[in-house]
Amino acid sequence: MIKNYVIDTNVAIHDPDFLQKFEDNNIILPITIIEELDNLKRREGIVGYNARMASRNIDKIRSRGSLNQGVELPSGGMLRIELNHLDFSDLPIGLDPEKNDNRILAITSNLKRMNPDIETILVTKDICMSIKADALGLTVQDYENDKILVDEFYKGYSSIFLLSKEIDIIYDGGLVYQPEDDIYPNHFFQIFAIDNPAHTLLAQFNGEKIIPLKYSNEIAWGLKPINLEQKMAFELLMNPEVHFVSISGNAGSGKTIVSTAVALQKVIESGEYNKIVFVRPVVSAGNDIGFLPGTEEEKLRPWMGSFYDSIENLLDGRYEKRNQKKDKSDSVIVDSMIEYWRAQGIIETKTFTYMRGRTFNKSIVLVDEAQEITPHLAKLMLTRAGFDSKFVFIGDPSDNQIDNTLVSSKSNGLVYAIEKMKGSKLTGHVTLNQVERSPLAKEAEKNL
Fold it and tell me: Is the distance from CB of 330 to CB of 312 less than 8 angstroms?
């Protein structure tokens, strides 16, 4: 049965391609949404970019007919911009008619009353909007088209028990393995011998066989993995045949420093790639990036602290300064080295605002805090991949690490990319749980 879906502005900002996601139903856009998109399109960062994209997509439909009367969509549904039904008489006293959210609620309520034979549903990602709609007796839904509906996310590894002779076959060239559910190419196994408890092995499934790790004894920019989970991440990062790596995990688990170390090794030392592109979504509780002074690099500098810290720590270890008194000029030296690499074209720092139209060939692209991006931006980022490039998404997808109101633990770009890409031989994922930053960081992660 055909339904009326009334769309809130935050849905368009979350996914600018939302018009394609409602099958053959009616999509109703209150005129208030167009006004809000117009106000938001000048914003820097993710919100402004998505507002512009959503506006362009609506404009493409406008060329096919009158949005006032309704335009048929390629999916078979209908898009209409609603100018009427702003009567507040059905709504309780206390709802400010000047607020855009309440205007959208009024339109939804009146459409429901005037079209009793068609189910009218408000679609929003705003919690307070959902609460008010429910209190008014309206049907309200979250936008779930790109929400990952699983109880447990894919970790990238598991434990199995084999006979010692089967483990020997793995060492001798690989053990043919018929995967079960949730076992994908580049999945890791911690293997225990049934007949010899002391006989263990960390191995990887290549899509056909379980094989030994290739890079377990290598060092990248002075760094060697210090636990099993980091060894798995290191294996994926070092392998040139894995073009997309996702690493999730708690703060202090080593996501950024391991990724940065491998990137520096493969660009500066071995020359396998031409440059490193550090990408960071700009999600702030205060001023947006556009209101900060300076060039793009200067604006981004406060947001790139995790990468700068990783490089500084790696340089400390590389030049054996750990046991020496730290000089105040060390951080200046690190900044100078980064600026030198930037001038040579070896390092770029970017945000998503400047990604459209880019193609990265023979590059390592590290996307930090990927839990802050929408699925739309995750797709935008990965479709920038040119030949011989490697993309790495890093982040912690738990709700307490997400500041972007447009996404949640199950609708952010990191988990979306992990779940949608996990079946490909070109990709690999691992979840890091062990905190290695310091004893205090480990206690804080455990107890707070």
Answer: yes
**What residues does 274 pair with on adjacent strands?**
none
Helix/strand/coil for 430: strand
Asked if residue 75 lies in contact with residue 56, where contact means CB atoms within 8 angstroms, the answer is no
Handedness of CA 209, 210, 216, 220 (dihedral sign): positive
Instruction: Strands of 311-389 (E only): list them.
Output: 347-350, 363-367
Pairing of strands 119-123, 3-7: parallel
Whether the predicted pLDDT of 301 surpasses 70: no
Express each pLDDT in 356-384 by its tens digit. 788 999 999 999 999 998 898 899 899 99
Question: Domain map of the chain by residue range?
Answer: 3-141, 219-447
Say how many C-beta atoms besides its own lie within 10 A of residue 41's C-beta.
17
Question: Tens digit of pLDDT for each residue in 56-68?
Answer: 999 999 888 999 9
- 3-state SS, residue 222: coil
- pLDDT confidence of residue 10: 93
CA distances from 239 to 277, 290, 308, 389 (A): 18, 37, 24, 12
Where in 322-384 does DSSP place strands (E)? Answer: 347-350, 363-367
Return d(Cα 299, Cα 252) in angstroms, integer. Answer: 26
Torsional class of 362: left (φ above 0), alpha (ψ -120 to 50), beta (otherwise): left
Is 240 strand, coil or helix? coil
Alpha-carbon distance 352 to 223, whole Å?
A: 29
> Does the fold of domain 219-447 match that of domain 3-141?
yes
- Distance, first Cα to last Cα, the chain: 48
Amino acid symbol at 330: D
**pTM of the predicted structure, to 2 decimals:** 0.80
Can you tell me which residue has the tokens 């002779």? 165
Residue 60: strand, helix, or coil: helix
- Rounded CA-CA distance 413/372 in Å is 7
In CATH, 3-141 is 2.60.40.380: no
Domain covering 219-447 in this structure, CATH number: 3.40.50.300
